[in-house]
């Protein structure tokens, strides 16, 4: 499928901070972006609103809306503001805004659309399903943990490997618009984000793996820079991809973007102390794979916070270059 001139149709699938980070870069290159966001989060302010108001968790949705918004910096600060006193301690104003909009509109899906309109969002933000779901993990010792935040906490604490993950209830209905967006996309991006708690939950929604297999879009996986303590201990790049294929099927990845920048030793030490390590890969190990690996400088360092992340602009440029080159080579073969 050929992207429209200077405006490829991109669907980005995931959750957490990784997805919203990438969206900030992508909106500089195209206005046709659909963010498909997991709604299995049950921690923090999102978890409180989910439990008390019976709405889908707004946190990841809010972050994606703000990443794609064309609004004044003060408005973004307002919507990201977290209360520090009283019963609202820890709650973000953006979550409350979305909860209030849900009350006005009568449903969460329309509330997301209206909030997007208010903030002049580039593209669309869609929950992968509008059903109330919980993410559960079956650990290798036989224990079953339900709740995204509980899985993260238990994995980090016990270091017992995850055997598999599933949704409760199973096979929730997808949003029709999600399937339609994937079907007609020029490119579908998986990640970056936590393998088991941000990306795979989307692949557990009914029909999503099938439409990913069926679409003519090129499918790009953004490799994580670091492993997730407890969740992906010892996972190299290929192990991440094997897990994605286990839930999404073979052929759901055509290209993999992997970081080539070196991580400063002092930051690496902090990650090692926390139990994380670099997601390792080398060209020899992927030579016979069906996907093509694209090594690129996509690292952004935050020394004051001891963190490394993907650089939104660098990552977006690499993704857009892959889409453009793929389109050119397709044209040449016709």
* Superfamily (CATH H level) name of the largest domain: CofD-like domains
The shape, in one word, is globular
CATH architecture of the largest domain: 3-Layer(aba) Sandwich
Largest sheet: 7 strands, parallel
Encode the helix/strand succession as letters: EHEHHHHHEEEHEHEHHEHEHHEEEH
What does this structure look like?
Residues 1-5 have low confidence and may be disordered. The strands form three sheets. A seven-stranded parallel β-sheet has the order 3-2-1-7-8-9-10, with helices on both faces. It has a three-stranded antiparallel β-sheet with strand order 5-4-6, with helices on one face. Helix 11 links the parallel strand 8 and strand 9 (255-259). It has two domains: 10-38 and 128-332, CofD-like domains (Rossmann fold, 3-Layer(aba) Sandwich), CATH 3.40.50.10680; 41-127, no CATH class. By secondary structure, the chain is of the alpha/beta class. The chain is built from 14 helices and twelve strands. The protein has helices spanning 16-26, 44-53, 59-68, 73-80, 93-105, 108-118, 148-158, 176-183, 195-203, 208-214, 237-248, 265-273, 283-286, 312-332, and strands at residues 10-14, 33-37, 124-127, 134-139, 144-146, 162-168, 187-190, 218-222, 255-259, 292-296, 299-302, 307-310.
Task: Give the structure's gist in a few sentences.
With 334 residues, the protein is an alpha/beta fold.
Secondary-structure map with pairings?
Elements: E1 10-14, H1 16-26, E2 33-37, H2 44-53, H3 59-68, H4 73-80, H5 93-105, H6 108-118, E3 124-127, E4 134-139, E5 144-146, H7 148-158, E6 162-168, H8 176-183, E7 187-190, H9 195-203, H10 208-214, E8 218-222, H11 237-248, E9 255-259, H12 265-273, H13 283-286, E10 292-296, E11 299-302, E12 307-310, H14 312-332
Parallel strand pairs: 1-2, 1-7, 2-3, 7-8, 8-9, 9-10
Antiparallel strand pairs: 4-5, 4-6, 11-12
């Amino acid at each position: 499928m050929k992207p429209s001139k200077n405006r490829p149709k991109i669907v980005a699938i995931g959750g957490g901070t990784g997805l919203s980070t990438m969206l900030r870069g992508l909106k500089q290159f195209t206005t046709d972006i659909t963010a498909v966001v997991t709604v299995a989060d049950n921690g923090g302010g999102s978890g409180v609103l989910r439990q008390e108001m019976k709405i889908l968790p707004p946190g990841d949705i809010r972050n994606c809306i703000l990443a794609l918004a064309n609004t004044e910096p003060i408005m973004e600060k307002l919507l990201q503001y977290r209360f520090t006193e009283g019963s609202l301690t820890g709650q973000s104003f953006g979550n409350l805004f979305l909860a209030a909009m849900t009350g006005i509109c009568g449903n969460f899906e329309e509330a997301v659309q209206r909030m997007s309109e208010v903030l002049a969002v580039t593209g669309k933000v869609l929950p992968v399903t509008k059903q109330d779901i919980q993410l559960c993990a079956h650990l290798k010792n036989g224990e079953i943990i339900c709740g995204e935040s509980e899985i993260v906490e238990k994995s980090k604490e016990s270091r017992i490997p995850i055997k598999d993950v599933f949704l409760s209830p199973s096979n929730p209905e997808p949003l029709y618009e999600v399937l339609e967006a994937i079907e007609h996309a020029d490119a579908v991006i998986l990640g970056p984000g936590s393998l088991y708690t941000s990306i795979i939950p989307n692949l557990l929604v009914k029909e999503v793996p099938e439409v990913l297999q069926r679409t003519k879009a090129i499918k790009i996986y953004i490799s994580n820079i670091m492993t997730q303590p407890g969740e992906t201990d010892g996972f190299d790049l290929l192990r991440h991809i094997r897990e994605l294929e286990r839930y999404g099927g073979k052929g759901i990845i055509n290209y993999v973007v992997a970081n080539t920048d070196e991580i400063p030793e002092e930051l690496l030490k902090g990650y090692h102390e926390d139990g994380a390590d670099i997601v390792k890969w080398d060209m020899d190990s992927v030579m016979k794979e069906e996907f093509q690996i694209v090594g690129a400088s996509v690292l952004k360092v935050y020394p004051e916070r001891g963190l490394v992340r993907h650089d939104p602009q660098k990552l977006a440029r690499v993704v857009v270059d892959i889409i453009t080159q793929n389109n050119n080579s397709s044209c040449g073969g016709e």
